[in-house]
Amino acid sequence: MNANALSTLVSAVRSELSDVTQQAANEFDSLRPIRQETLQTRQSKKKNSVFGNDFEEFMALEKIKQQEAELQSWMQLYGRAGLWPDWVRYQAQARKQRQLDIAERERKRAELIEAIGIFAIILISALIVFGTLYFLARKKAWL
User: Fold this and answer.
1) Residue 51 near residue 21 (C-beta atoms within 8 A)
2) Is position 68 within any domain?
């Protein structure tokens, strides 16, 4: 094989590897809500079923673990050196960022509720003052 054919082959393999990595990452990201929902269900599980819900949760978590193991194996075999640890670090950073985003949304929501409450108190106070003045003005026959 000449150098040109070899470089073409390497670029084709890299392109294919990049596409497959992107597909695997997308699939893994699509599992995140399922995992989060499963964990939340586990934390707030209902006691109306003795066996059914626990078994379903267990099987869902096992499926996620198996898919993570497949992804790890795939990344270690076909990815660049250090791809899996980089992926784990990226997941940790993304998880922290999502938690910060959730905290920020909750803080903004609390500020909005507080502002609406203050506005409502001011509006009610103004209505009471003007209503009292109007009532007194009518009683004194000023109006």
Assistant:
1) no
2) yes
Closest CA to 39 of 73, 65, 72: 65
In a domain, 92, yes or no: no
CA atoms within 13 Å, Cβ hemisphere of 98 = 9
The CA distances from residue 40 to 35, 48, 72, in Å, are: 9, 17, 25
| Centroid of chain to Cα 103 | 11
Supply the range of the domain harboring residue 124: 99-143
Neighbours of 48 (CB within 10 A): 7
Residue with tokens 């393999």: 13
* Higher-scoring residue by pLDDT: 72, 129: 129
pLDDT for 74 equals: 87
